[in-house]
Task: inverse folding
């Protein structure tokens, strides 16, 4: 399916630094080391509700990754999925008495608008689970040939014990894995499985639910294999970054890493497993199932400048869990207005330290708050004392636009 329009990204003088990122699998901040083309897969939405501030924070964080790589001279091959068939989508459609496809189409359209407004650079491939069914079926068949898939009734499971590296992304103990699998779409208590953590690859057709006729029999894809198959198809056997929120560490990225390992023999599938913190509201993780949501589209409808929304997200470090409050947006609006006043001046203090400082902070595990502080210092100086450099306001504005995605 199509993604959304790309924002203009100004070119900057010189070249960005090597991007360092925290990798969940090794527990360390390590340099990324992409080739000429950096490869990134970020898990996309399940389109049963509108984009909330938590989703937006996660996609803005990975947008910084792409911008930093491009600034350092790499091409970026970015792929994102849409889980356009899964239990939560069907459940919501059923609850509201609407067609699941219409629901998905509507929410995907809204997501595109939100991403466009937030100046998120789109992926080159934006792939729905439904359109990836042929690749998913192929991957399940290949797992079966390798002895890593088996049937329970009409359903097909991945046998986690066929991967000696299983557990190597999250390094969680088994009770924790069992608990998280139960909470996040798994079925650890289902009888007949070889191991309670084995996950669904293919779900046989159920009455009243959509199903596709395939060589695996009528049914629909399991969740984790969806991302594994899409990533392998479009990005190859090894990628630089697999990303998403930290609610995806287990089971989603763990299962994906193991499936890919069995399929390709390569470990790790991603050099960096990168996870954004959870954004909460009123003491709880913001989530569609809890319904405690602040929607990007609603903020936009209320007249809030998307650049201010983006600045509010950048004010928090991507790895921390944090709580959204109205104050986040108010502070960002004040900051945005000051930045715009400063870059509208006819001259200002030299802007080279802004470019160097923003580059340094972003390259250091996406320290966006540090980058904002660098810009704040230049803006304070410009507004208080002005400065002699006629090119500086433009250079500062281009730095903020290219690296932080905020148009001044
Ligand atoms: N379709 C799957 C991934 S394949 C999924 O998790 N969809 S989602 O709509 O639930 O979430 C979309 C993305 O936003 C995921 O990367 C998820 O980790 C992230 N996310 C979900 N809730 C939050 C939150 N409260 N804060 C930050 N990121 C979140
Ligand atoms: Zn995914």
Result:
């Amino acid at each position: 399916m199509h993604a959304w329009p790309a924002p203009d990204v100004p070119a900057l003088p010189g070249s960005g630094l090597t991007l360092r990122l925290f990798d969940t699998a090794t527990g360390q901040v390590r340099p990324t080391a992409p080739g000429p083309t950096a490869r990134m897969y970020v898990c996309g939405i399940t389109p049963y509700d509108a984009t909330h501030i938590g989703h937006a924070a996660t996609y803005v964080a990975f947008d910084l990754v792409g911008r930093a790589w491009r600034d350092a001279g790499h091409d970026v091959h970015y792929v994102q999925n849409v889980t356009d068939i899964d239990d939560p989508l069907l459940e919501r459609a059923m609850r509201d008495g609407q067609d699941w496809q219409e629901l998905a189409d509507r929410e995907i359209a809204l997501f595109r608008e939100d991403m466009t407004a937030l100046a998120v650079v789109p992926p080159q491939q934006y792939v729905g689970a439904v359109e990836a069914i042929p690749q998913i079926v192929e991957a399940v068949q290949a797992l079966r040939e390798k002895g890593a898939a088996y049937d329970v009734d009409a359903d097909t499971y991945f046998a986690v014990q066929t991967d000696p590296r299983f557990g190597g992304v999250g390094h969680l103990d088994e009770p924790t894995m069992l608990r998280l699998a139960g909470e996040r779409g798994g079925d650890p208590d289902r009888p007949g499985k070889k191991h309670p953590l084995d996950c669904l690859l293919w779900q046989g057709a159920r009455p009243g639910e959509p199903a596709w006729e395939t060589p695996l029999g009528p049914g629909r894809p399991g969740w984790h294999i969806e991302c594994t198959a899409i990533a392998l198809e479009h990005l190859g056997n090894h990628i630089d970054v697999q990303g998403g929120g930290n609610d995806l560490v287990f089971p989603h990225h763990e299962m994906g890493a193991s499936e890919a390992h069995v399929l390709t023999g390569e470990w790790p599938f991603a050099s960096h497993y990168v996870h954004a913190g959870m954004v909460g509201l009123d003491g709880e993780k913001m989530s569609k199932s809890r319904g405690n949501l602040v929607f990007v589209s609603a903020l936009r409808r209320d007249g809030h400048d998307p650049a201010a929304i983006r600045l509010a997200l950048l004010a928090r470090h991507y790895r921390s869990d944090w709580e959204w409050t109205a104050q986040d947006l108010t502070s960002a609006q004040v900051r945005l207005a000051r930045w715009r006043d400063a870059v509208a001046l006819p001259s200002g203090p030299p802007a080279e330290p802004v470019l160097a400082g923003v580059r340094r902070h972003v390259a250091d595990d996406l320290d966006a708050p540090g980058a904002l502080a660098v810009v704040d210092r230049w803006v304070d100086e410009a507004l208080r004392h002005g400065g002699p450099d006629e090119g500086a306001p433009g250079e500062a504005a281009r730095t903020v636009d290219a690296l932080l995605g905020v148009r001044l």
About this structure: The two ends are 31 Å apart (CA to CA). The first strand starts at residue 20 and ends at 23. Residues 43, 81, 227, 252 surround zinc ion (ligand 2) (CB under 6 Å).
